[in-house]
Amino acid sequence: MHEQGELSERRARWSGAFSVVSGALAVLALFGLARSVLAMTYLNVRFVDEVDPLSRAVSYYVFVERGADVFDATLGMVATATVTLLVGMAQLRVRLGTPAVLLFVAWSVALVLCALFPTDNAPRIETASGWIHQFAGASLFVTLPLAGLTLARSLAGQRGWATAARIVRGLALGGVALALGYLVARLPDLLPWWEFPAVLDLRRISGLVQRALFAVELGMLVVLAVTLLRSALASRRVTAGPAAARAETAVRDAGGEYAASRETS
């Protein structure tokens, strides 16, 4: 019995340590996502005259003065926050599912590729860097919404994650709708030989649709980070409870032994 008690205590300590690590990773992810939101807001406001936020893609911020550093750092920060979230959830033994993990990793890799390979500042894609950026950027519209839908199914039945699953599913569906909307808005570029009526040429709002999609995707990550932090804190309280009770019992027993020894003396 004594050995079983020690084993349970060691498991509780390890579980508590994992909870602390998961909580710290959640805080780091939230910090990175908050920085990313501020950075993108800065780019949209600071360079509104150079890059029209309604019609131009966010990729063109790399062509304005000092915009490339902020833009690339933002993409890297979001990729890092995503991986941090995955590690934190795994530490807390949240069941993610292999498909969801692969989609999240693909999203993170695509973010890094978009930062490393800028698009071409021209009406047509002319360089290998531009093509890599285009394909990586296109995958961003697909991978995270699909990852959210896949992950939501896994989270729905797990304690403490049901609410997050519903929110993530809703945001993921919104992301799918916005991704389709962006595709429709860019059809004149994808089908240059087709004469689109002016009323159907939605390129004038394609930048806005892209930014809305990016905001939805960041929202999904924020929901996961907040839920991870709350779950880590709850897990820490659960593991700390028995330890505190054992400490209180030990103090009470020691006090009783001391009182008994005083009486006998």
From TrEMBL:
Pfam family, one: DUF998
Transmembrane residue ranges: 12-34, 70-88, 100-119, 131-155, 167-188, 208-229
Keyword Membrane: yes
Keyword set includes Transmembrane helix: yes
Keywords: Membrane, Transmembrane, Transmembrane helix
Database matches in InterPro entries: DUF998
Protein name: Uncharacterized protein DUF998
